[in-house]
Amino acid sequence: MKKLALALVCLVSVAFFASCKEPVENPEPSIAIFNEEGYVQNNDVVDLNTDVKFGFVMSSNSQTQKALQSLVVKIDDVVWANLTDSLTGLTTYTYKDVVEYKLERDSIIGASVITATVTDEAGQMNTATINLKLNQVEDPLTVRDFDWFRQGNTQTGLEELGLYWERNIKSPFAQIKPMDGVVLYKFDSSVWEQVVTPSQKAAVFADGATTASVYNNVDVNENGTYNDVIGTRMPDGTLHLMLVEMCRVGSYEPAGTPIHIYGKAK
Length: 266
Hints:
The protein is built from three helices and 17 strands. By secondary structure, the protein is mainly β. The strands form four sheets. A seven-stranded antiparallel sheet has the order 10-9-17-16-15-13-14. A hairpin with a 5-residue loop joins β15 (224-233) and β16 (239-249).
């Protein structure tokens, strides 16, 4: 009887310890960003209007082995994918997709966040996130030639750039001024080559420009070459950057001496 009692005590002890297993400390399934050539990773910079490949790899918890149940993928505040049937009964799953960020979606210009949340059959959840910076690829500025012409009181070619040729004085120098509501700027000559995109143009007008009431560096008494950079801000906010390159003076005519100031605008 003593031996039997001892045996029963041993069985009870084994049963007690078996029923008191330590709980799994981190029972959630695993999820990570899919890492393969051509697929974005966290903190990557991507271009607008291009295909952006992304993905996630997930698996059941190595200790609980609970099957996967669902996956929800969000791009910013939009639910991009909500999967259940595709994961049912699986212990591993790889999700791949493509997104194209359109310029028209103002809310995502600058940055975007792709979030994936996986849930297993025990209701345990885990999340992986891809933070992206969005780069707007700009078309280069279009450069065109201009011809500012004056003969007597007749002038052409300036109004579309927000300017008018008031008169010639002193040497004589052409007095070219901004029209009503237009702001005239002067720049260092190096700005012309440095500015090639709309954003660069906007930046120099905001940070590197000196306002002026008149541009009067062209001597209209003789032919000459110049390398002057000026600009105008139109009443509607349109920006014009101009490179004044040369002056050509014609022979005297009864209507006045014909004068051309040539350059480029962008």
